[in-house]
Amino acid sequence: MDQWLRLFLAEDKAGADATTWLQFKEKIVNYVSNPDVWMNYLFIVIKVIVIYTAARLVTKFSDKTLQHMLAGREKSPLKFDSRRTKTIGKLIGNITSYVVNFIMILMILNQFGIRLEPLLAGAGVVGLAVGFGAQSLVKDVITGFFIIFEDQFAVGDVIQTGNFKGTVEEIGLRVTRIKSWTGEVHIIPNGTITQVTNFSVNNSVAVVDVSVAYEEDVDKALAVMRETVLQNYETNVNMVKAPEVLGVQSLAGVNITLRVTVECKPNMQFAVARELYAEIKKAFDSHGIEVPYQRVVNFHKNERGE
C-alpha cells in the first residue's frame, strides 16, 4: 500500500512539474511574440539615443559658447589676465561636462524603470561615507580650488613642483597635468603640490659668459661684444631691454671671461642666450679675436735624439 502511495505521489509531482514548465514556456513565447513588448523596447532605445545625442550637443554647445565668451574678453578694451581666463575656462568646461554626463546617466537609468529618488538618497549616504574615508580626494579638491582662486599658476605657465618641471596643460579640481620639454606628461594630484616655482610670471634674465685668450685686447673684445649684442637686440623680439655688457667676470689660468646680461620675456632666457653665443662667436671670428681652446703640441726626435 505504501509503495502504491509513493508511486502515485511521484507521478503527481512529475505531472505538476511538467505543467509548470509548460506554463513557463508558454509565458516566454507569449512575451517574446508580443509586439507591444518590442515596441516598448524600441521606444526605450530611441529615447536613450536621443538623450545621449542631446547631452553631446549640450556639451559641444557649452564649449563653443565658453570659447566665444573667452575670445570676447580677450578683445575687450578692459584688460583681463589671459592666463587666468584660460585656466578658469578649462575648469568650467570640465565641470559642465561632468554635470551633463551625470544628468544623462540618471535620465537613461530612469528609462529602464529605475527610480531616481532611492538612488539619489543612497548616493548621498555613500557620498558622505566617501567624504570621511577619502580624505586625500577632499584634500586634492580643496587644494585645486585654492590654486585657481589664488592664481598660483595657470594653463601655459612653466612651473616646477618637486622633481617635475614643464608646461601646465590642465588644472582640474583633483589633478594638474604638466608636460615636460621632452614630451612626458606628468599627472600630479593637487594635494601633493606643496611648493611651486613659476617661471612664467616675471621676465627672465639671460647670462652669457664668453671667454677670450689672455693675449687678446680686452677693450677690443668688449667693444665687439657690445656692438654685436646691440645689433641683435634690434631684431630679437624676445628681449625686453637692451643687453648690458658688464665687463670682465673672472680671470682663469688660460682665459678671461666676459659677461653679458639681458632681460628677456618669461622663460625665453635659454633661447636668447643660445642666439647671442652664436652671434658673438661669428663676430669674434670676423675680428680675429681668439677664443681659448686646448692645443696639442707634438715633438719629434731625430736619430740622434734631438
Automatic annotation (TrEMBL):
Membrane topology: Multi-pass membrane protein
Keyword ATP-binding in record: no
Keyword Cell membrane: yes
Record domain Mechanosensitive ion channel MscS C-terminal: where: 207-290
InterPro entries: LSM_dom_sf (IPR010920), MS_channel_1st (IPR049142), MS_channel_C (IPR049278), MscS_beta-dom_sf (IPR023408), MscS_channel_2nd (IPR006685), MscS_channel_C_sf (IPR011066), MscS_channel_TM-2 (IPR011014), YbiO_bact (IPR045276)
Mechanosensitive ion channel transmembrane helices 2/3 domain residues: 94-135
Domain of life, source organism: Bacteria
Similarity remark: Belongs to the MscS (TC 1.A.23) family.
Designated name of the protein: MscS family protein YkuT
Gene source species: Paenibacillus konkukensis
